[in-house]
C-alpha cells in the first residue's frame, strides 16, 4: 500500500475504486474546464440495403416523447434526452448517462426525406431512410443467345 493513501482506503478495495473514479472525474473537469455531464453520444450502427439506409441507435431508458428525428438534406439528426430519476436514498455513484444529446449522420447517397420512418423498440431507435428511386440499384437480367 502507498503510504500517502488515506488510512480509510488502505484495506478497502471498493473505497480505492471509488477514489479512482473521483480522481478521474477531477482530471476530466480540469482538462475540459468543467463537469462533462450531459455530453455524450449513443452507440449507433448505419447499414445500407438496396432500398434504404437504416440507423440503429441505442437509447435505453429514453421515452418516445423525448426523441426528435429530423432530416436536413442527406443529414439525419436525432436529438433526445435521458432524464435523471428521483432517488429515495443517498446516491453513491452515478454511472448512467443523463442529459441531452444530438447525434448527426451524413448519409452517403440520395434519399427521400418525406418517407423516413422511425420506431423505438426495446431501447433501440431504428430510423429507416429510403433511397430515391434513381439511386437504387437496378437488376439487369442476362439473357442467353
Descriptive tags:
alpha+beta; Immunoglobulin-like; 3-stranded antiparallel β-sheet; 7 strands
Protein architecture, described:
- By secondary structure, the chain is an alpha+beta fold.
- The protein is 14% helix and 32% strand.
- Strand 1 and strand 2 form a beta hairpin.
- The termini are far apart.
Q: What order do the helices and strands come in, and which of them pair?
A:
Blueprint: H1 13-32, E1 44-48, E2 52-58, E3 67-72, E4 75-82, E5 99-106, E6 117-121, E7 124-130
Antiparallel strand pairs: 1-2, 2-7, 3-4, 4-5, 6-7
Outline:
This protein has 145 residues and is of the alpha+beta class. Helices cover 14% and strands 32% of the residues.
Identify the CATH architecture of the largest domain. Sandwich
Shape: elongated
Q: Into which percentage range does the β-strand content fall?
A: 25-35%
CATH class of the largest domain: Mainly Beta
When the domains are counted, the total is 2
Order of helices and strands: HEEEEEEE
Please name the CATH topology of the largest domain.
Immunoglobulin-like
Helix content: 10-25%
Count of β-strands: 7
How large is the count of helical segments?
1
Give the termini separation: 84 Å
Unreliable residue stretches: none
Rg, Cα atoms, Å:
23 Å
Mean pLDDT: 81
Largest sheet: 4 strands, antiparallel
Main β-sheet, spatial strand arrangement: 1-2-7-6
Class of secondary structure makeup: alpha+beta
Amino acid at each position: 500500500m502507498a503510504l500517502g493513501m488515506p488510512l480509510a482506503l488502505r484495506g478497502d478495495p471498493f473505497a480505492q475504486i471509488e477514489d479512482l473514479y473521483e480522481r478521474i472525474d477531477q482530471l476530466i473537469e480540469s482538462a475540459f474546464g468543467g463537469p462533462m455531464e450531459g455530453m455524450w453520444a449513443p452507440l449507433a450502427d448505419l447499414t445500407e440495403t438496396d432500398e434504404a439506409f437504416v440507423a440503429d441507435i441505442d437509447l435505453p431508458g429514453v421515452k418516445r416523447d423525448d426523441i426528435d428525428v429530423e432530416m436536413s438534406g442527406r443529414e439525419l439528426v436525432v436529438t433526445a434526452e435521458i432524464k435523471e430519476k428521483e432517488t429515495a436514498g443517498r446516491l453513491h455513484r452515478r454511472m448512467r448517462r443523463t442529459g441531452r444529446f444530438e447525434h448527426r449522420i451524413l448519409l452517403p447517397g440520395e434519399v427521400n426525406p418525406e418517407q423516413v420512418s422511425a420506431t423505438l423498440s426495446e431501447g433501440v431507435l431504428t430510423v429507416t431512410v429510403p433511397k430515391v428511386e434513381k439511386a437504387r440499384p437496378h437488376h439487369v437480367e442476362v439473357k442467353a443467345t
